[in-house]
Structures are given as structure tokens and as C-alpha cells.
Design goal:
Layout (H helix, E strand, L loop, with lengths): L4 E5 L20 H13 L4 E3 L20 H11 L4 E7 L5 H15 L3 E6 L4 H5 L9 H20 L3 E4 L4 E5 L11 E5 L3 H10 L2 E4 L4 H17 L5 E10 L3 H13 L3 H10 L28 E3 L1 H14 L4 E5 L5 H16 L9
Parallel strand pairs: 1-2, 1-11, 2-3, 3-4, 4-7, 7-8, 8-9, 9-10, 9-11
Antiparallel strand pairs: 5-6
Helix pairs in contact: 1-2, 2-3, 3-5, 5-6, 6-7, 7-10, 10-11
Pfam family, one: Bac_luciferase
Keywords: Flavoprotein, FMN, Monooxygenase, Oxidoreductase
Protein name: LLM class flavin-dependent oxidoreductase
């Protein structure tokens, strides 16, 4: 049995994870996320993870225009659940480590040690610049800042008083109590570059990534494993998988086609600009631009099909890539989550991947 962790990437943003007009209604409300968290716990998933987004992508679908704050959401979900891990996300450019240290320690008391933290070292360009943050920082500088941020927060979680004189943070006799329950919470970070993965391997517990195909998932996972071995070999790999189940493979493909028919090119253009995939020129928003004809709302790395097909493909990638954890997103976080919890993950566990209670 390979010990796999299974998590749910929560729909805290309006529209969920698909920029399309043809998707199930996801309002990004706390009420809906509470239902999803309790359902995830009932199926025995290991953790929930919520993102931190401070500005949406607009367009007709108003994708991510409504977004819950991650740490506050995590505290609420921690109080409302009993066993499932509750992981939140913070951006190191936006929140001082001393503030986060106190908030996470409080969340840890609420959850009795079920708290985890996903940090964002770079990215979120539009979210940062609207607040006048991060304008002149390239990736290497952002990782230097993130390194100091992690050092400070860990010190505040373990030491009575902290003095720190860094490039980005200066603390003098800084105190933070209470401490987290059970010691330093598990910390992960999304990274795909060698520089980013090396940062995670040296300072955190796990790297979060996704792929655009089966081969890209496997190659990224194996590269992360290699970088982990070069830096102490204690890095976990977590891959984000979009799953779209159907009774048959053909049924799942019909769902994909329907979502793509309603694709929101404005939101997709804003997303591409934020992540540097296209020019920041406003004309990139024009749906008639060359190249947008083939734009899709569904990621090319989506795993779709019958429960048996999805389980087979996931098992192949987890095994070949030596992946430690799978984090799932989906169009409908009630019906699709039920299929995932009742049919797909039990098939994975039966084949030797994981330990969740759903088995």
C-alpha cells in the first residue's frame, strides 16, 4: 500500500475552477464551502485546501470575482469539522509573518492541530499591484523574501521572543503566543521552476503543482523528487487534478464539450495576462484575436471519464510519478465529490493507493 494523502481544493471563489458560463452554479459562499468540507470529511479525505485570491478575472462569468478570505474560512471550517485537515493559503507579499503566525496558531487551537498552510511566494501579479505591492520584485527576490517570511513565522511558533534583522523583515523582541498545537504546522507552496522547488525543499514540507498532460504531471513530479533528494529528501509532492466524471467516458466528454462551449474568453485572457502567458496589452482581451479560437475552459490536464477510467489514469500518474498526494478540483463539489468519494478513491485504495476512510 502506497500511503497517499487525498485533499479537496475548496471552491471559495465564484465559478469554481472553470471560467465558463456553462457550469454548475458555484457562488463562493461560506455556506456552500461548509457543505463541501463536511462532505469531504464524511468520505474520509485527509484535508481541505482553500486558495487566497484578492481580485477576480471578470468577464461574463465573473470568474473568482467573489472570493472568501482563506484563513478566516479555515477557522470556520475547523470549528465545524472534527477530523479533516484544514489548510489555508497566504501570500507572503500581503501579510506580515507575525500576523500570520498568530492567526495560524489560533486556527490550530480551534482545529486541535489540524491546520496546514500553503504559502504563495510569487504570482498573483494583479492582486499585488492593485495594492501597490510587489511591483519591482522578480522571482528570485520574491523567493528571498519568502525565505525570510518562513524563517520568521517558524521562529515565532517555537521561540519565546524573536529578534530578526533581514532584508525584508525586522523584528525586535517580537513575541507570539499561543503556539500551534502539536508544533509547526505542515507547510506547502506551489512551484514549478527548479528555483521554486529548491526553495520548498529547503524550507517547507511539500510542493504543489499541476500538469497539462499525463507526461507533464509525471515529469514535474519526478523533477521535484530529484530536487528533494538534492536538498535532504524530505519533500512531499502534491498534484492538483481536475476530474470530470461521467457514467461513461462519452458522458464525461459531453460535459467537457459543454463547458468549453461556454468558455469566458475575457476571464481566460485576464488569467493568461496575470500568469504571464500573453502580453499585458489590453487587446489581449479581444475574443477575436488570433489564437483564441482554440481556447478552452477546461484544462488540458483534466482527468475525465467513467469512475473506472479516472481511477486507472490517476493510479498510473501517482505510481509513475511517485506522487505523495492528490488534490482534487471538479465542476460540481457535491455531485462530483460524491462520485469521487464513493467510487473513484475506493478504487484507488483497492489498487494500493491511499488510506482514506472511504475505502
Amino acid at each position: 500500500m502506497k500511503d497517499i494523502e487525498y485533499g479537496i481544493f475548496m471552491p471559495v471563489g465564484s465559478g469554481g475552477w472553470i471560467p465558463s458560463a456553462n457550469i454548475p452554479e458555484l457562488d463562493g459562499s461560506y455556506e456552500y464551502n461548509l457543505e463541501v468540507a463536511r462532505l469531504s470529511e464524511r468520505f474520509g479525505f485527509d484535508f481541505t485546501l482553500s486558495q487566497a485570491v484578492w481580485r477576480g478575472y471578470g468577464g461574463p462569468s465573473k470568474h473568482f470575482d467573489v472570493n472568501l478570505e482563506s484563513l478566516v474560512t479555515g477557522a470556520g471550517l475547523a470549528q465545524a469539522t472534527q477530523d479533516i485537515g484544514v489548510w489555508s493559503t497566504v501570500n507572503t507579499a500581503m501579510m506580515h509573518p507575525a500576523i500570520v503566525a498568530k492567526m495560524v496558531a489560533t486556527q490550530s487551537q480551534i482545529s486541535n492541530g489540524r491546520t496546514g498552510l500553503n504559502i504563495v511566494a510569487g504570482g498573483n501579479r494583479v492582486s499585488e499591484t492593485q495594492m501597490g505591492l510587489g511591483r519591482d520584485l522578480d522571482s528570485s527576490v520574491k523567493y528571498r523574501r519568502a525565505t525570510e517570511w518562513v524563517e520568521v513565522v517558524k521562529a515565532l511558533w517555537t521561540e519565546k521572543t524573536v529578534d530578526y534583522d533581514g532584508e525584508f523583515f525586522q523584528l525586535e523582541d517580537c513575541q507570539s503566543d499561543p503556539k500551534p498545537v502539536g508544533g509547526i504546522p505542515q507547510m506547502i507552496c506551489a512551484a514549478t521552476s527548479d528555483t521554486g522547488m529548491a526553495f520548498v525543499a529547503k524550507h517547507l514540507d511539500g510542493v504543489l503543482f499541476e500538469g497539462t498532460s499525463r507526461d507533464s504531471v509525471v515529469s514535474t513530479a519526478l523533477r521535484a523528487r530529484r530536487i528533494s533528494q538534492e536538498n535532504g529528501d524530505n519533500l512531499k509532492t502534491y498534484c492538483v487534478f481536475m476530474i470530470i466524471p461521467g457514467e461513461t467516458d462519452a458522458d464525461a466528454q459531453k460535459r467537457i464539450d459543454y463547458y468549453n462551449e461556454g468558455r469566458d474568453l475575457i476571464a481566460l485572457g485576464n488569467m493568461a495576462r496575470e500568469w504571464g502567458a500573453v502580453s499585458h496589452d489590453a487587446t489581449a482581451l479581444n475574443p477575436d484575436n488570433e489564437g483564441w479560437a482554440d481556447a478552452t475552459a477546461i484544462s488540458t490536464g483534466t482527468v475525465a471519464g467513467s469512475p473506472e477510467t479516472i481511477a486507472e489514469q490517476l493510479a498510473d500518474m501517482i505510481d509513475t510519478g511517485d506522487i505523495d498526494g492528490a488534490v482534487f478540483i471538479m465542476p460540481d463539489f457535491v455531485d462530483d465529490l460524491t462520485v469521487l468519494g464513493e467510487q473513484i478513491v475506493p478504487l484507488l485504495v483497492k489498487d494500493g493507493f491511499g488510506r482514506v476512510a472511504a475505502a
